[in-house]
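[#protein-structures] MJ: dropping Aminopeptidase here for a structure pass
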Amino acid sequence: MGYREIYKEENEKAQERYELVTDRLRSISEEETVPEQYRDYFSKAADFLLYLDGLLKKQEKGSLDMESMEECKKRNDRLYGDIRPEHYKASYGNPAYAAEKFGKEAGQMLTFLYSELQAGIGYVFEEKKAAFVTLCELFVQVYNCFEQEAGPDLKEAGQVIYWYFHDYSEIFAQWQVDEMTDPQLDFCTRIIMDSDLTDLRYLYRYGLPVGENELKIAEYLNGMPEAEVQAMADTYTEGYRIGFEVTGKDLSKKKTVNLHYALGFERMMRAAIKNFEKIGLRPTISREAFSSFFNKGGTKRGAYSTSVNRQFDYDHREDKAYYFDKSFVERRLEALRTAFEKKKKAAVEHGGPAVLETFGEAPFSPDVCEEAIRYSDKQQQLNVYNASMSGQITNEYIPGEERSFTIIAYPVPAVGADFREIFAETVKVNTLDYKKYQQMQQKLIDVLDGAVFVKIKGRGDNKTDLRVAIRQLEAPEAQTAFENCVADVNIPVGEVFTSPVLKGTEGTLQVSEVFLNGLQYKDLKIVFKDGMVTDYSCGNFDSPQEGKNYIRDNVLMHHDTLPMGEFAIGTNTTAYRMGQKYHIMDKMPILIAEKCGPHFAVGDTCYSHAEDTKVYNPDGKEIMARDNEISLLRREDMSKAYFNCHTDITIPYHELDRITAVYRDGSEKDVIREGKFAVPGCEELNIPLEEGEK
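AK: finished. structure tokens for Aminopeptidase:
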């Protein structure tokens, strides 16, 4: 059974409603029953839904896949052209434009709805007719509220939207769980495994935006020898397998792996799926989220493509605020638990995610749109609660101590004219000799273990001045405070990291420029006291308060404060050299950038939800620093122990003066001095740094 068969019964039940609602949509563009200022909006939106209706009919007949490349490109432009940057200024998807046309209250409602209608694209391509019907009915009901003789009833229209998300929470939550745990929902898998990947029309089968990045990366992979593509897939899947092995988890109990990848990488993913099948795992893959319910505009996950317009994504990233209240959250959490209960066996057998990220796009610093929907303070608190409880429910059914993950990154053509060279260098970076790094990193750990605290100081314009408290060991001969991280779950090599003791961890962290969660930060400063964030600023905006809001929303994730959940020293100087050589340091993903200097995570520790699972380094020593004073609160109140976020902030080597271990007797040893590794036996790590200075 595949995805079509699974949706067949509910689609058949929705057929009569489908015919009624599409008939109603056809009449809207001909009517003059709403005030004149709204007619163009409703006519455009109705035409968009009717266009989707036409695509659905073709999809059901199988004729959509027969269209020429030119027709595919025209279709893609029809679906997404309106919100592209060159058209965004006068798009109803732009909150500022909608507010200008309709006033702030009506404008926010209608731009929200306009954005939400994009979810219909996914419903059509996945042939979720019943879901498409409910979306069309939502639109028609809102339209009806604008037909009132006394003028638009905005309150009633708002209630229509609210109850749509409230009433369908059960269905949406079930989709989330099903798409993660049920390999029979094989929409994306079938594209990967059944398509002729040399015919690039396959990229348009997802219904996602397809641009130069997707087309060129697919062309590039098609030109690679099979052995090289297989080697890329092997690195990815071996990282996942070894992740279970090194943490002592039983992979044989698992039946599924959740894949995340960028369009264009299907040739590699096909090889990866075959690799996973050899170790007993079937893939589950969801399509990138386009509904506010699923956090549209958030981290790229599932089968995803390059953003059409990152400003649009940023403007709509908190659209959920339109209907987000305590009643909705409680219902959604109840629905999530019910969904997991229905898939209880499949959830236990789920192994976790295997993620392929991309990098190369120009750094993005958004404009602040005052008219965009934003969470209130109360909603931000609710959002934190929702994330915390969702994490707990998920962990209850897919225990953290039994699952693993892996993550790897590759460049896309947007990285620049040196794309081919950078891609080849990235493959090299992802396949460095982890045994060699393991040995050098152990020498670093030997110096760091036993330190009471570590001092980190910047140089030049970097004013970083931090003191990080380190877990003290009761049995140093059998214990360590730092994990020797090579290339298993977290590719590429290498770093050594720990969960700092919060008390005594203090000072200022500064980075001149950094790229976090898809957003650019200039002159980022964060101040810590007893391990907790007490102040922060950045230079992105003229207004200091706008900078604070930007950090609070996108680094602190709406929390008033966060702990320092990780202190690490990156050792991948080869990756750093690549970034410097090709001038792409500002484009490197955090996955690689974190290996290019010391980094500090705000949020949960690296062992979140699995602190009680013993973990060992290759030398056999148990890693003791799995907890901090916050995560230990789980023994009293789980809701106080986790923040459900973890953002790494890296100081590049060229902004670093030194890292010094300070011992109980007052003696000191430099780990890094003047931006170079100072520990005997680690001289090889300095070679790429010295090459970059020539």
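MJ: nice. The chain is about 45% helix and 15% strand.
AK: one more thing. The first strand starts at residue 256 and ends at 262.
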